[in-house]
Automatic annotation (TrEMBL):
FAD-dependent urate hydroxylase HpyO/Asp monooxygenase CreE-like FAD/NAD(P)-binding domain: residues covered: 8-169
Signal sequence extent: none
Lineage: superkingdom: Bacteria
InterPro entries cross-referenced by the UniProt entry: FAD/NAD-bd_sf, HpyO/CreE_NAD-binding, L-asp_N-monooxygenase_NS-form
Species of origin: Dyadobacter koreensis
Protein name: Uncharacterized NAD(P)/FAD-binding protein YdhS
């Protein structure tokens, strides 16, 4: 008997969550013996993607434990797991505001993911389902009359009826021209390659100043780096500092209902200017008085000063600029979907940087470590990066900022994950784009049906091809949070199972 095969490419947080949910729903429907599931993962272990494969204790989750559950509709599963594994996880909980709100190391979260995968993989086998984990890289996919043929790095091909892209966050292909230079690192991960090759006393330049740059910094700081570390970035802005216990706040002006009202009354999408106006009104409501917006400008202020101020603000419960994006976290994707394509692009270029530093903050524990590095004169942030070149004569990288040149022997590219398909460093994504099996979305990532997570091709939802996570970033916005991706998995698995059982054609 031909078993319908579902192949999930990528065994990270999304791939694991989907695998477990598909198994559960198929088992409950007693259809699990008619379907086989394959996971293709290029790393040694599942669950250990870019974010959770790290070994550094300074790489901390930026989301509290009770939102990090990997099981659909059970966000608190990870905090429950922490309580059960109390003795084992002690040192890995770095910021314990009560176990439910704990922030743990990312490596512990990777262990949790792997454990959940192993548990349900074994259970699926025990229940008589055909499941398979292939350790290889998927490099290309070809459409067949029925289903797909997936090219593997091992030289083999895997045929499947349904394919799901869950390949995670590809690093950017910026500064490719530097990639053959001996002391250049194209990404802060895996940290082992940095630790193996950068001597402790050497100075290091880091491109970027966002969360990825903080990761590179923490890798060096965790390992007692003594040389000077310099961030070079466009705006010189570091992420703000996470409030330990944010007070709950209900937005009254910037709401989905007010944006829908604009649609209803004006018969058009809300614009980014209208949204910004509502945000300002919301912030003044939060604060209870008028805000001098000029004073909230962060560019032009030294990073160490901003950090000190942000630590104090975080310890006092945060401010409007941080707490409103946080309060909007369950609705921001829905609001994003109401914008038209041009306003999404406008948001990215005009407000994207501010959104990123306020919405995705750094943990307080790390902020205090970084403050000490500034005080010791070991860290500097230089804005207005204009150019990066390589001087062959002395084998140094030359960084130009506001017409001034600085030299670095070691350089780490921490400019963050690529948003646009053309910038993603992934052979598979490149080949899929060349074959036109995926189509770029202007605001980033690929075109998908946001209800079902089916890939959209030539204006139509593909009946047998789905995508999850970062590759859907332009349409969904919030894909850099596990809890958000896990939510999208519910719809995907429901749709896929209905396709197999024929219910979608009813
Ligand atoms: C540095 C960093 C820190 C983050 N911190 C947090 C956080 O604190 N909290 C939070 O909620 N979210 C965080 N995120 C976002 C989080 O990683 C994502 O929301 C989530 O991991 C997405 O899971 P994923 O499975 O899509 O990606 P990943 O976890 O990256 O998994 C993708 C998997 O696919 C595999 N793969 C890729 N390409 C192929 C291929 N061609 N063939 C075979 N296998 C392939 C990879 O090896 C990897 O295992 C962070 C992201 C990054 C980059």
């Amino acid at each position: 008997m031909h078993l319908t095969n579902i192949t999930i490419i990528g065994g990270g947080a999304c791939g694991i969550s989907l695998f477990i949910e598909l198994f559960l729903q198929l088992r409950i429907a007693n259809s699990h013996k008619k379907v086989s599931i394959t996971i293709i993962e290029e790393n040694e272990e599942v669950g250990k993607g870019l974010a959770f494969g790290t070994k550094q204790p300074g790489h901390i989750l930026n989301t509290q434990a009770d939102l990090m559950g990997i099981h659909f509709a059970e966000p608190a599963h990870f905090s429950e797991w922490l309580k059960k594994h109390d003795s084992r996880v002690g040192k890995e909980i770095v910021d314990n505001q009560g176990e439910d709100q704990a922030f743990t190391t990312r490596r512990l979260y990777g262990d949790y993911l792997k454990e959940q995968f192993d548990l349900y993989f074994e259970l699926a086998e025990k229940e008589g389902m055909s499941v398979d984990l292939i350790k290889a890289s998927a490099t290309d996919i070809e459409k067949q009359k029925n289903g797909y043929s997936i090219q593997l790095s091992s030289g083999q091909r895997k045929l499947c009826d349904f394919a799901v892209l869950a390949t995670g966050t590809p690093v950017a292909n910026m500064y490719e021209e530097l990639s053959d230079k001996k002391n250049y690192f194209d990404s802060p991960w895996p940290s082992s390659k940095i630790l193996d090759r950068v001597p402790r006393n050497e100075n290091v330049g880091i491109l970027g100043s966002s969360l990825s740059a903080i990761d590179a910094l923490m890798t060096l700081a965790d390992n007692d780096h003594q040389g000077k570390i310099t961030f070079y970035s466009l705006d010189g802005l570091m992420p703000r500092v996470q409030v330990e216990k944010p007070e709950s706040y209900n937005c009254q002006h910037l709401t989905v209902s007010n944006l829908h009202k604009i649609q209803r009354e004006e018969l058009r999408s809300p614009t980014i200017f209208e949204i910004f106006r509502l945000f300002k009104k919301e912030a003044e409501n939060f604060k209870g008085k008028k805000i001098n917006w000029k004073k909230t400008k962060r560019t032009g202020v030294k990073a160490d000063k901003l950090l000190k101020k942000d630590i104090a603000i975080a310890e006092q419960g945060g401010d409007a600029l941080m707490n409103i994006p946080y309060a909007l976290r369950y609705e921001s994707s829905q609001m994003w979907k109401l914008l038209d394509e041009n306003d999404k692009l406008r948001f990215k270029s005009w407000l994207g940087g501010y959104w990123a530093v306020n919405r995705h903050c750094m943990p307080l524990v790390n902020a205090k470590r970084i403050e000490k590095l500034f005080e010791a004169g070991q860290l500097e942030v230089i804005p207005k990066l204009e150019d990066v070149a390589f001087d062959e004569s002395d084998e140094r990288f030359v960084l130009t900022c506001q017409d001034k040149k600085r030299k670095e022997k070691f350089l780490i590219n921490a400019t963050g994950p690529a948003s646009a398909v053309k910038d993603m460093k992934s052979e598979l994504v490149k080949n899929l784009a060349t074959r036109k099996l995926i189509e770029p979305e202007k605001a980033g990532g690929i075109k998908i049906n946001t209800q079902t997570m089916q890939v959209i091709n030539r204006g139509k939802s593909c009946p047998d091809f789905y995508a999850l996570g970062h590759i859907t970033n332009g349409l969904l916005l919030d894909v850099n949070a596990v809890w958000f991706n896990v939510k999208t998995i519910g719809n995907l698995s429901q749709h896929l199972i209905n396709s197999i059982t024929g219910e979608n054609s009813l």
